[in-house]
Amino acid sequence: MTKPVLSVRNLSTSFLVDGDWKSVVRNMSFDVAPGETVAIVGESGSGKSVTSLSLMRLLAPATSRIEGEVMLNGRNLLALSEKEMRAVRGNEVSMIFQEPMTSLNPIFTIGRQISEVLIRHKNMSKTDARVETIRLLEKVRIPNAAGRFDEYPHQFSGGMRQRVMIAMALASRPKLLIADEPTTALDVTIQGQILDLIKVLQEEEGMSVLFITHDMGVVAEIADRTIVMFRGDEVETGPTEEIFHNGKHPYTRALLSAVPKLGSMQGHDWPTRFPVLDAETGKPAEPVEVADTVVLSTRPVLEVKNLVTRFAIRSGLWSRQTGAVHAVENVSFDLFQGETLSLVGESGCGKSTTGRSIMRLVEPTGGEVALDGYDVMRLDTMGLRQMRKSVQMIFQDPFSSLNPRMTVGTAISEPFIKHRLGTVKEAKEKTADLLEKVGLSADMASRYPHEFSGGQRQRIAIARALALDPKVIVADESVSALDVSIKAQVCNLLLDLQQSLNLAFLFISHDMAVVERVSHRVAVMYLGEIVEIGPRAAVFDNPQHPYTKKLMSAVPVPDPSRRGIRRGISNDELKSPVRAMGYEPPKRQYREVSAGHVVQVG
Hints:
It is a single chain. This protein has 21 helices and 23 strands. It is α/β, with parallel strands linked by helices. The strands form four sheets. Strands 16-17-18-13-19-20-23-22 form an eight-stranded mixed β-sheet, sandwiched between helices. It has a six-stranded mixed β-sheet with strand order 6-7-8-3-9-10, sandwiched between helices.
């Protein structure tokens, strides 16, 4: 039998909390064979990232305690001195973290940062390190690698920064690569490229990979074996195919049942709730279709015509305008009461700016917006205040949108009181009712945001958005940052609230599998323009625009049999929406494919 590159036995990690040791990882044991990919999967708080940091001994020694045995090529890493461990990190074992911008030093060029690894661990000269760094950048498919050697991290896109991190991790040709949620923060097409890149480089270099994630779709595409973690314990382990097809632990089945699968909506005419785990049988319950609540009145609740939003770019001594970011360009759509219209696309496509422009949180450059009888573009400050009773926004990160010094009860009741919709007593009653509506209890009103989990904070943000009884809710990536089962719960909550309150949702997302499940209609955005729009079934069953097809093909599929498939790695970065002064976009032509399904031509 082949000797494992990494052998972990009874790994346990504890943190010092208020004078007591709190156990967060307990008795983890597993092996990683040469050339093998092992995935550790679980949600936030499961202990998977703590496990990886323990293996690398990157936890603060004063407040952490690591026990057990971590054997790397015959040496116990937990018994090495700190000096010996420094020689291991980045040399025999390398690590890629979730957010490359926080891992790369913003004041040094990317070339210098990669070269530093080679100079330190391989004793190369600066000249040789430069040549090797350019080779590595080319290896991870960064275009014009020699020209970009002297550029800084902020000059790269998120996907390209993650490629730089992979190049740095591969610099010393490690035997083991630990990838901790390396694709979670990336758009779906960039995620697909990074997964393909890791597979290709693994085959070329023959290295082992320990891949840490909460996304079962990613696990299916990349892992030979899978370890499922739940609250610090290893609850199930085995070949990935076995875990997916015959998972025995209820938590494994819960994770799998909550994964949105592209194409799962065929046969469903309307948005459908995510399946949830039946507590008694341990099996996913059948998905429940949400009844059609669209009121096809003669007048939509929201009308957007030829919306344009551009941001000036200024430079030089006098800050003269030298160009503009064409963030939203000639966007038009209607939204009816009780309907969900999803705006989809990658970061930078203009979907969030569209949502903010409609609410005048950013000032549009031109176009028309009519919302519940208001001509939004002509409103003064008082008019905007009144209009915002009809439309509310749910943001991606509930923690940054909730005041940490304000109880959640005060945060929810504040809009009600500011708009003078009732007394303080009525505000408290309304808050208690809203907390119950979003699946929390009324007695939680006295707590602060930090006392809640991410999913609970998002429920609080939803309750606050409902405080003014709006007709329209703009949900801006409102489930993107959530774990898969929490994402399913929050999406189900939104669907239930839509049905009971007849709400209209403008659902902004880059997650095509979620969009397919919650939408009545879908609009695909690219470089500030809608390139395809139509009923959900029409767009997903018969996508017409090349960009729509690209988005769909990039979605990870939770099927281990697809592990050998390669999508083809693109070297292209997303095109820039920055235009020179005086630029006017060409007049676009559209073709109707079927009733209500329209695609941009040329």
